[in-house]
Amino acid sequence: MTRRRSTFVADLRTVLAGQNFRRLFSVRMVSQAGDGIITAGVGTYVFFNAQSFPSPSAGAAAFTVLYLPYSLVGPFAGVFIDRWSRRQILVWSALLRAVFVALTATFMGLGNRGVPLYIALLLVLGVNRFFLSALSAALPHVVAEDELVMANSVSPTGGGVTALIGGVIAGGLNVATGNSERGAAITVLVGGACYVAASLVATTMRRDLLGPVREPGAAPRGRLRSELASVAAGLAAGARYLIKRRGPAGALGATGAFSFLFGPLFLMSILLYRNYFYPSSAGLAEGHVVGLAIASGIGYTCAALVTPPAVRRLSKPTWIALLLAVSAVATVALGETFIQAAYLAVGFCLYLTRQCVAISATTILQEEVDDAYRGRAFAFYDMMYNVAFVAGAAIGSAFMSANGRSPIIVGLAAAGFAVAAVGYRLLTRREAQSHPSPPSEEVPPSPVPGQASRADR
Fold first, then answer.
1. How many whole angstroms separate alpha carbon 334 and alpha carbon 341?
2. In angstroms, rounded to a whole number, what is the distance separating the alpha carbons of residues 318 and 235?
3. Of 38, 178, 311, 322, which sits with the fewest C-beta atoms within 10 Å of its C-beta?
4. Closest by alpha carbon to 116, among 132, 129, 100?
């Protein structure tokens, strides 16, 4: 145990020693603190209104409006992530989000809970996914290839922790402002200020530091009209590229399967706390959801501790299959109790396994996808992550009770995790037996410190 901890600390120090990684990491941390503040502020405003009880269909509709549309256009953004300076994307998308946050705050201050509010939120979250995809595609430019697992543990997990802290801050702001509509608007404006700060931090990096790398002899970038005209062709090329590579395709499939099964469980937990555990008090329900968020955040954080040593002993595909199996056991053993304390454990377990899968899948994409396609790969990853989540919540809502207590949902989700574990394991075992890539495509490690080598596998 001591040896494992010391290895983690040593790897962590190695990653954080890189100045450029620290800058990229800081951009993520500041931005995701804003994400946590805004998510908590909006969630309280929409789901824990004292005058209403959210239904399964209403919750699924909210998820659909907030996640589905921008996820469908995510791959289009990926084409531009592979064409435009990723550093500039970070700078300008953060500022654009701040503008949309101000628009959202205006609607919240007016007490609007209709279409205008959802459109404003859609714009905020849509640009945010563009921002996060660019962060993932940029990471291999600031760390060496053999440090990607640790970097992927530290970076998204650290961002998730700051998002949790931001959520706690939002709760304090809501209380300080009297849990009013105007107070909710003030809360999200504080989150918008974090986006402005993230943009300023991004300007400390060189414009060309984060790629994309242009191959020798590549055609110069054209005007915006010609860039837009090439989106469809670029998407098709990116899809063909990924389909031919079973490792990245399998990682995307595992991500989608987990999100699809996680969606109804997430919606069910909101309904349980609001309509089943504490039906008489929206404020009490909101307070106890904070406890669930903390337990989930601890699980999320622990993923950064367990994944690096795990993938030293197991391959990343084996680790993903094991995580899916553990999710099946935890879901059926704890979820069927419908006891609040058990759901704290469910939150811990599923956020732990979900983030471990995310770290491993992200690393597979970074290691096995060439830089010229990496932006599109992460846009497809983003689409799988969110569209599957929305689809799972929408389908699950048709079978979910109004108060959230739905044994059939828990049972089906657990069975789904088990099927996904077996299916992914069989897929990756065949991949290992059929040689993942021809020797002619191998590229030796980059001799330049701090830059990952690129292999077209």
1. 9
2. 29
3. 178
4. 100
**Domain-located, residue 109:** yes
Residues in the chain: 457
Structural domain includes residue 90: yes
Both tokens of residue 172?
């304090």
Place of tokens 């620290």: 22
- Residue among 390, 386, 393, 389 at smallest CA distance from 126: 386
Looking at residue 220, what is its pLDDT?
58
Domain that holds residue 32: 8-211+241-435
Tokens 């005007």 — which residue?
223
- Is the preceding peptide bond at 212 cis, omega within 30 degrees of 0? yes
Token pair for residue 377? 């790969």
- pTM of the full structure: 0.73
pLDDT number for residue 438: 41
pLDDT in tens, 5-61: 445 567 668 888 889 999 999 999 999 999 999 988 887 777 776 555 678 887 887
Per-residue pLDDT tens over the stretch 270-309: 899 988 998 877 777 877 888 898 899 899 889 988 999 9
Token pair belonging to 154: 């530290």
Least confident of 11-25, 170-184, 276-290, 427-441: 427-441
The DSSP code sequence of 196-254 is HHHHHHHTTS-TTTT-PPPPTTPPPP--HHHHHHTHHHHHHHHHHHHHT-HHHHHHHHH
In whole angstroms, what is the distance from residue 33 CA to residue 45 CA? 18
Tokens of 395: 């389908």
Closest CA to 310 of 156, 160, 420, 153: 153
Please report the pLDDT score of residue 449 as a whole number.
31
Whichever domain contains 134, its CATH number is 1.20.1250.20
Total tally of structural domains belonging to the chain:
1
Tell me the percentage of the chain whose pLDDT exceeds 90.
44
**Residue 45 in tokens:** 């405003």
